[in-house]
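Hi! If you just cloned this repository, the fastest way to understand the data is to look at a raw example. We've pasted two of them here, unedited. The first protein comes first, obviously.
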Amino acid sequence: MLKNYFTIAMRHLMKRKLLSFINIFGLSIGIGFCLLIAMYVSNEKSINSTIRHIDQQYIIKSNWKNDNTAPATTTVGPLAKVLKESYPSLIENYYRFDPLTAIVPSGNKQFREDIASGDTTLVSMYGFPLLAGSKTRAFRDNRSAVVTESFARKFFGQADALDKTITIHTPKGKKEDFAVTAILKDMPYSVLNFNSGHDYQVFVPMESDTLFRLLHYGDNWSIVFVTGMIQLKPGVDPNDITRLVPNMLESNAPPFISSGLEVELTAMKDYHLKGNNGIIQKMINALSLVGVFILLMAVINFINISGLKGA
């Protein structure tokens, strides 16, 4: 039976070759575009999906009475750390980072790199996959560096760069050597680059921040340019945490911060889609509609041309 159907179909195709080609080509193009759109949408929605305990991860966002005080995606330097230390029964872990730009030489070449100076909880909190290094102790000391696979290949010509040394030159003329103690597998880490859109590939401990800053950002309650993220214990309501912040700010921060700042926790699991006024989500919705329209037009075109062939 199937053989007969196949034979009849081939006869129809060969009878009007040009119309058959146009018909099949048009449908194939429509399906192809839809598949490309579906792949893009799936990729955007999968960003951060592999992060450990993603449902419990939150970004500390700042709502300032004066919008010019600081970006909404940064907060007071010590806040995430002190919240964890003060309420260990509510908060599982925390991670803060401060974006830096510095020169990192490799042989006769010099590269301007975006560097994240942050807490040593980077790997243990998010469960990022490693090519090399310890998952529980990615940073051995304050002169350790965690780098991505792409960075290792660019600088050392191979992914296996464990225990190799990189030298970071700061804009102030200082330089310091860091030993590579862990290598991250390449993946879309929007959890790290959402703040400024930079592609961070080098991570150093915040405790070594005096190399780059005159003031230690992580301990200074007057600094409001540190990105802070926390992981809540299972079942903890983020609103329970935000209600604790005003008293903490009043006790530690200067008046212009304690009186002008309102903190909110934004879920990390959909921040990539909903951040920046939901621009990614809006684009995905628009592309999805375009994909449906293209597929519909391709099907209608296929039916119409098939009708011409049968006439």
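Ok, and the second one:
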Amino acid sequence: MNWMVLESLAPVALLIGTGVVAGKLGWVKQAAVKGLTDLVFLLLTPALMFRTMAQVRVEQLDFTPVAAYFAAIGVLFVGIVGQQGFGRRAVVLALAGTYSNAVMIGTALVSLVFGPQGLVTLLTLISVHALVMLTLTTLVLEIAVQRDQGTAQGSARWSGLGLTVGRAVKSTVLHPVPLPILLGLAFAQTGLALPEVIDKPLALLAQAFAPLALLLVGVTLAFTQVGSHWHGALVLTGVKNLLHPLLVWLLCGLLGVQGLPATVMVLAAALPIGANVFLFAQRYGVAQDLVTASVAVSTASALFTLTAVLLLLS
């Protein structure tokens, strides 16, 4: 089993490494990264997720593993904010310690290692992952902003809090990740099968997702500068890549989640920091350099930490 784990992770490492080399040698220009990212997120990702969920009945879904996953996030998020002291920086760092790159790396890895059955479990998590985490983080950050500004200035912002949270909910639902999952699941309940003329192109697009997404991760790493934030980035990497999966593993045991669902949830927790965290750091003007460095270090370290986690779980 250990050899199977290493054999499954080898293509992941090679594809990311190839992306790094392509970026360093200038085969892929930095200006092209945004276009490639849009291609993956707006075309390949929806095709994979819709086609996968279009074959799943609602009664097959189990949200108990997802509950264990979010329980661990709650413990870790509150712990980081408590340790840092409530404020915008603490909330952004707490998001960095709990928000996984479940789409670009997680979907590719789980589909390669565990196939469709494992992918359904992961997509069940992904369907609510961004909606829950980004919406709640927006709410907590807005509260932190209002507290920092004081009652006089903050009172004007309270009236717009509902609008801000509403926009966050809308943007996370009408998004190329959760929307095709929900549409595919809705289609599956009709009992119909996708026509061959539609299913075949979707299958080809879905097959292109994993290699291109992993190459893009490598290219992005090639252009990311860590700078002087090594120490803080290593601490956040340890929290995200090691402590987070440990907590999920413990809570899966407490809630009786076993087998493949538990493995996929722990693996999802062991994934590196997702890029959305940088968007929050940028929007709220805190820890931008630290978050950028942490995403890079966490992603580079994930090849080793994911291997260790999978070997232990096996």
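That's it. A detail worth noticing about the second one: The chain has 13 helices and no strands.
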